[in-house]
């Protein structure tokens, strides 16, 4: 049994909004042994809505697809965790290159993943993608698998989390099926291993992965790995494995800038028959900066509640009302906070920053300040120009774009990252 047939029928009959309400705004698992589908949400009104509108239909679809009666449970969670439907090693069909939003923060990782999909096992093997949680690493990994599935020239594709890899090994040892375990992974044409950092300290699993890696690599089979940190920082992973990881192409996914966050919201909106005021898009991009998954979750919550109340165009005030539990207004960063952080970090005075000085360090500091005002607060170039004493908006735009380009430099990236960390945004 697998989940895909159920998903296809569900979306075909109930639509994308219903799917996202039940399976992307909630923690959802399918237990094929107990014949149970469990939906956990942290929103009581959403729980009541799912129970009344969707549970009877979900039960009917499950029975029709699997020819057995299923129990559907909707539970209120106090933890507030929002994840996605558990796919049990299957590729998520919605994670494709076509619906991945490319920006300055991820364009290298995107290009690397696409190159691997087009020529697996050739130039970039292994491909190691790293970055913070919720920035698109898993999306790119699934996109590679989905691309090759459509091409139908890659016979055996395995997607697996490192935790599942560990559990598979433990079970194979317990059941004395270690050779079956090795055959499963070492005969794959493409292996996608998610969150490799969870193998830290697990020596036996690392031993098996090392030999699996060697077999696949020597057979020119593509290996793709994701992690929350680069290989050199994986303390507790054997040096010989880290050496293998570093032998391929390493690509990082950084925090998305304001423009990319807006583009993500607009791309996601293409699937729905709903209109948002431009101010709502700006509000989302300003307040959900560090995790694309959280940004998409906030958008889906707006869509869910507009569906419940049959609202065709959502206003900024309505969006704020819907997201009031997710956005803490008291903790929002202000212009003065960014100004103080920048002045302290670069050790210059406010008078120097706001002057017309062309001294290199002051110009750079002014450009960083401009970038942060745009990236964190989403201010217009005209507004930033006014803050800096009436500077022309084209000058401000140039400053912002220059830092955006320079983020590829480790020094500039570290400057921005450190200031954001000081502001408690990372």
Descriptive account of the structure:
- By secondary structure, the chain is α/β, with parallel strands linked by helices.
- Mean pLDDT is 83; it is low at 79-88.
- The chain contains 20 helices and ten strands.
- Helix content is 54%, strand content 11%.
- Helix 11 runs parallel beside helix 13.
- The chain is globular.
- The strands form three sheets. It has a five-stranded parallel β-sheet with strand order 5-6-7-4-8, sandwiched between helices. A three-stranded mixed β-sheet has the order 1-2-3, covered by helices on one side.
Give the count of helical stretches: 20
The strand order across the widest sheet is 5-6-7-4-8
Topology as a string of helices (H) and strands (E): HHEEHHEHEHEHHEHEHEHEHHEHHHHHHH
Main beta sheet = 5 strands, parallel
Topology (SSEs and partners):
Elements: H1 4-14, H2 16-23, E1 27-31, E2 36-41, H3 44-53, H4 55-66, E3 71-76, H5 107-118, E4 127-131, H6 137-151, E5 157-161, H7 162-174, H8 178-186, E6 190-194, H9 203-218, E7 222-227, H10 239-246, E8 249-253, H11 258-269, E9 275-276, H12 278-287, H13 292-308, E10 313-314, H14 316-322, H15 335-346, H16 350-353, H17 360-377, H18 381-387, H19 393-406, H20 410-422
Parallel strand pairs: 2-3, 4-7, 4-8, 5-6, 6-7, 9-10
Antiparallel strand pairs: 1-2
Helix pairs in contact: 1-2, 1-4, 2-13, 5-6, 7-8, 11-12, 11-13, 15-17, 17-19, 18-19
